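Reply to dn_fold:

You asked what the input looked like. This is it:
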Amino acid sequence: MDDILRILDKEQGTVSAAKIARMLGRTEEEVSEKLEKLEEEHIIAGYKTIVNWDKTDREVVTALIDLRVTPQRGEGFDKVAERIYKYPQVKELYLMSGAYDLSVMVEGKTMKDVALFVARKLAPMDSIISTATHFVLKKYKSEGIIFDDNEKDTRQVITL
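and this is what came back:
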């Protein structure tokens, strides 16, 4: 199972069951069944395309927002996180160690959109003690993909 997951991770989910089967010396049916099981068990949570928006006409502003939170009695941080991750602007959400409790990655059309999201949606929540917003100025690497101005393939080579 780990060998299939490593291949999918390395190839960013773009490799077929037939190719995985050839790489591992297994049948395509065997690999397809394993992939289906991994998807059903949510070990494979999804497949994602990574877009370099800087090379398109679409304007996207990304911000990392650190939150200090008062956990809810009997439920810890989970209920607060659930309220936050339901917003479509929220792309990623993590429980953190250190000075802040939660770290949220948010996308908006403008810096003002992101600022208003923080001011109107996050900051007013009873359990949010404080926020710190960090706007992303340039993305160098995401999901193992290096964002480079060159047109070459910049995927990292990972050996199994």
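The radius of gyration is 20 Å.
Hope that clears it up.
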